Amino acid sequence: MSTKRQVHLAAHFPGVNNTTIWSDDRAESQIAFSSFEHFARNAERGFFDFLFLAEGLRLREQKGRIHDLDVVGRPNTLAVLAALAGVTDHIGLVGTLQTTFNEPVELAKQLATLDHLTDGRAGWNVVTSSDAFHGANFRRGGFLDHADRYTRAAEFIALSRELWDSWQADAVVADTATGGALADGVFADRSRVHDVDHHGPQFDVTGTFPVPRSPQRHPVIVQAGDSDEGRDLAAANAEVIFSLHTEFDDAQAFYRDVTDRLERVGRSKDELQILPGATFVIGSSAEHAEERSNAIRRAQVSPATAIAFLEQVWNRDLSSYDVDGPLPTIEPDHEGAAITRGRARHTRDVPALVQSWRDLAEAEHLSIRDLVIRVSTRGGFVGTASHIAAEIDRYVQERATDGFVVVPHTNPYGLDEFVDTVVPLLQERGVYRQSYDEGATLRQTLALPGTIRDRAAAARTAAAAGPARAAASAGVLA
Amino acid sequence: MPDRITLVTALQGAGWHPAAWRVAGPVAQRLSSLRHWRDVVVEQDRLGIDAVTIEDSFTAGPRAADHDLDTTTVVGRLDALLVANAVAPATRAVGLVPTVSVTHTEPFHVATGLQTLDHVSLGRAGWRIQVSPTTREAALFGRRPGGDDAATLFDEAREAAEVVSRLWDSWDDDAIIRDVTTGRFIDRDRIHNAEYAGRHLSVHGASIVPRSPQGRPPVFALAHRADAAAFAVDAADVVLVTPGYQGREARDVLDEVRQLEQVAGSDVHRPVLADLAVLIGSSSAAAADELAALDGAAGSAYAEASDTSVLATTVPELVSLIGDLRGLGFGGVRLRPLRIPLDSTAIARQLVPALVTAGLRADVASRPTADLRARLGIAPAVSRYASAPAGSVSVEVSA
């Protein structure tokens, strides 16, 4: 039996990202269900652990208008995942869903539904937001203080777990095998359906949760925040971290950091998988892969995209500049309101950043477009299939990661080549599954501990023992 | 083209009778599974039903006399919008009409969820709009005290319907241009912010979902009483009425809708469907016995609790009734099967062929494969942002 650590792979649907090349000849609709179906079936052919969907709640803007250079428009995350439940059998379905612009009972109901519809393959990438830009699409508005967003997220998750725990596994009785024409008894045992009575700083929720216990009880919790608070939230709650750390040393450092944080909250590293998002460019030789990578980067950074990228840093209109010419000599605008909305902003020191770019461009004679391609390239693996398989194996064996979230460049065929060429090599190396386990839940596919501690039952037991213990028990996150 | 009469099946749990699960066999144990829902909806699809509605609520189930959850009947449910999406890939022609409440759910989520269903089903989405009046539901959200009067809830729902409609129109059909020369994926002049600010709700931006096949999926509303009927005429494309409920004649409830349309200044005659709860037996006597047995098991007569007529009937009687309703001007019926799968199967396998024989339905083989609006006889949804060609007629249903 192999004692090698096993690789876990997830597939990121290439939608509204600046890595998605919509101008490709084979690129198809980002909204047609056929694209999602192809992508999901292909990921399932490659035995991926899960398919990952991002979310957007407002179209991104630049200079006060909708950003029109990347793919724009996507489906509702939960709705398209539910549809994918109907065309897949094994792969996990993980959606990015906000804690700020949703309410716990509603989102918990939807996630429990997805877990039922998939026979236990649902996952939730928990994200937070606080800005008024997104808030303008919701009746809540953008009222949440930035500092409160993780507070709300943590309470949101804890409350969701209370709701998911509130139906015991044996609550539905419905004994229709009595032989008579009309079954006797009750449909459900009321004593096994527990009302929730939650009162916290963010939420006051009272009543009976509408959905019976789902196969996984809780969907697999994924977290992507990289800040100190984000990492703590992940250590306390997450089962998968979708990280940005793909450079080997950096990835190892992140892995150690998360392992330490887990220990501090009494969890083991076995309870969480770390999967950085990464792009993969496969070639028949190292040179061929480099050529393809360069072509992909040029396709990703169109002339208009290059200007827009600089505008995000300069915070001013640069549309009159020639992308094949030198960087603007005009200084960035530090005073004005941000011209880019709906995506993460550059928060680094802008003058220092601009100076470093000017130095780089001068030293290497880079045009605007060359410079943008250079500085916006990140987190990618480029090489032959065997090189890439060896690298993935190395990262996992040496505990830099537990696998990767593969981010293809094109929709919907961008994953096909990886599945055809890299997956068989990982299998040959003995580090990747040859098939799915029949009937496995996502939690099992991810090799995470299969049982979630039944906090509600523990709390009930403790309540019987005395009120002080009950309070202590209920406060512990699963 | 709509068929001679529209036939919609209303799905929920093991059926509409509180004792229905007692005759459902092993199905009663898997009401929360995709398998159950796919079995039921695929049968309706293959045999030519125009649409299925799927009920929803934030409550786990009805309350018993002691005000606690009544666990002698089916409790627990799945989210209807997600169930509709999950069965969409397995079906080809049937309209999928989930209930989505607007009292607690953000209109932005309502709009994008239904647009996605329309994309996934290639134009078969509909929306049963509903309000959530109970304090039980309000307490599960904890954002408002609950107990709002009906007028307030319907006012808010009118705003929600308007916002959703604007979001559905926010992308023009041709907004996605993929213009490689200029690097532009969309023409942003063809995307319009909702810019809605009402008394209850406000939404600023455009939908995140490009325009769906139908543009605006048809909206269904139940008009079982006067304020609901007024709301339905303001907010819906298809009106469900309940003849026989509280002694009202079919003719009168239809007239009421037509009068409300006139009052609202609408020149559109919406399809009006008679909403009827049915148990279909091999004979009138057998049907009556089976209903009596269910009522006995439930401890009370379901007809006393239902908000529409409860019929223990036969296929020939139903054909005759539907023919009469058509004669009065009804667009068709929405049938609530008292027992699922027993009565939903009878509707698909027995009632549909009998309606074909009676000349009330076209043969299933010639079932239209058009989108749901066309199937219901509703005009295509023209975007409010479309420049109207000369001589065109407005199809807007709300002021």
* Widest beta sheet: strand line-up of chain B: 1-2-3-4-9-10-11-13
Residue-averaged pLDDT of chain B: 93
Please trace the helix and strand order of chain B, writing H or E for each element: EHEHEHEHHEEEEEHEHEHHEHEHH
Shape of chain B: globular
Helical content band of chain A: 25-40%
What do you see in this structure?
The complex is a heterodimer of chains A (478) and B (399). Chain A is an alpha/beta fold and 478 residues long. In chain A, the strands form three sheets. In chain A, strands 1-2-5-6-9-10-11-14 form an eight-stranded parallel beta barrel, surrounded by six helices. In chain A, 48% of the residues are buried. The C terminus of chain A is likely disordered. The two termini of chain B are 26 Å apart. In chain B, helix 3 crosses helix 5, helix 6 crosses helix 7 and helix 10 packs across helix 11. Chain B has twelve helices and 13 strands. Chain B is α/β, with parallel strands linked by helices. The C terminus of chain B is likely disordered. In chain B, strands 1-2-3-4-9-10-11-13 form an eight-stranded parallel barrel, surrounded by eight helices. Chain B has a two-stranded antiparallel sheet with strand order 5-6. Chain B has a two-stranded antiparallel ribbon with strand order 7-8. The chains are: A alpha/beta (478), B alpha/beta (399). Chains A and B meet through strand 4, helix 2, helix 3, strand 8 and helix 9 of A and helix 2, helix 3, helix 4, strand 6 and strand 8 of B.
